[in-house]
């Protein structure tokens, strides 16, 4: 008979482990269900079509010079790029009122006045106004925001003359080297055009709440403060990304900018407009990585995976029968993979769940008691709990 090792934690290690991971939440960005009926009932064309038509006014890029293409894209789409101004008021430690101002960019996505921008542009704003390059200023309000993807929707009452809609393209088939154009309001200079190429794809960036934003687009088109939330366009004038971040030691453009893929936005826009927030699948467990525990001196039976420290009552993990660390320190289950994809850290779990829907069942490979077993887990949803420090997912 072969004796299988039982890995246990001492009482002291168990306490330290529980304390170290007490704030670990396992919310996940997820593929969101489509609400196409909303767009039809709203009376406007859906911006979420799979293949947006080339806007009128833009010639076939193969038939005109690169300069003429840039001119046509700017002339056609710039009227649909919003200059967003924000005002926030807070009290300092002495009780005095201080007013803060900021600005950013956004894109009109339908004829009802919905504007797509970055969450960090409008976060904590108490007053919003929008302009489109002229003297007319429109009051705006936040419809919904998602800190995990750094995206938000604001709305104005559309003028009788109508709005220029920036069509949403497709970010799944981009290639490094293709031309891109960015329109925005850097440093308060309204409707500025910069051009460049896609410098890289699948770049890992993080939202301000430290959640990974998967598959970001890297570009050398100049992006500066104030460009945030504006569109990254292809040569046909279709939005392929939402300009969000720059990599710069000095705070200015050094030719390394990042945009959230437009297909990420297309997944969450319907929920933001209808509900104001995003519902996501969630594991309902605290899951420190095996690698991080091994680095802290814990002896683990496998080299990679996610340890089930504890499960949340009523959550997906508990209902599927996943086992956490016991009171005597015996290790719980270790999640190795899901649907064949290895899960070495929480970011890998977030990326996997980003492609799943609430109510969907995922097959997890789990190390349990010296054996590997398959555990199907039905994913349940949760909503975001907003705190003064941003948005975080609550396990309880």
Description:
The chain has helices spanning 11-20, 36-41, 66-77, 119-122, 262-275, 290-295, 316-319, 346-353; strands spanning 81-91, 97-108, 114-117, 127-131, 137-146, 151-155, 179-184, 192-206, 212-219, 231-233, 239-246, 257-261, 280-282, 285-286, 306-307, 310-311, 334-338, 341-342, 361-368, 371-378, 380-382, 385-387, 390-392. With 396 residues, it is an alpha+beta fold. The strands form six sheets. Strands 1-2-3-6-5-4 form a six-stranded antiparallel beta barrel. The protein has a six-stranded antiparallel beta barrel with strand order 7-8-9-12-11-10. Strand 5 and strand 6 (151-155) form a beta hairpin. The chain is globular, with a radius of gyration of 24 Å.
Which class best fits the helix and strand makeup? alpha+beta
CATH topology of the largest domain: Thrombin, subunit H
- Taking all Cα atoms into account, the compactness measure Rg is 24 Å
Oligomer class: single chain
Q: How many DSSP H or I helices? A: 8
Overall number of structural domains: 2
| DSSP summary, beta strand count | 23
CATH second-level architecture of the largest domain: Beta Barrel
Largest sheet: 6 strands, antiparallel, barrel
Average pLDDT score: 82
N-to-C CA distance: 43 Å
List keywords for this structure.
6-stranded antiparallel barrel, 6-stranded antiparallel beta barrel, globular, Pdz3 Domain, Thrombin, subunit H, 34% strand, disordered C terminus, 396 residues, disordered N terminus
Per-chain topology:
Layout (H helix, E strand, L loop, with lengths): L10 H10 L15 H6 L24 H12 L3 E11 L5 E12 L5 E4 L1 H4 L4 E5 L5 E10 L4 E5 L23 E6 L7 E15 L5 E8 L11 E3 L5 E8 L10 E5 H14 L4 E3 L2 E2 L3 H6 L10 E2 L2 E2 L4 H4 L14 E5 L2 E2 L3 H8 L7 E8 L2 E8 L1 E3 L2 E3 L2 E3 L4
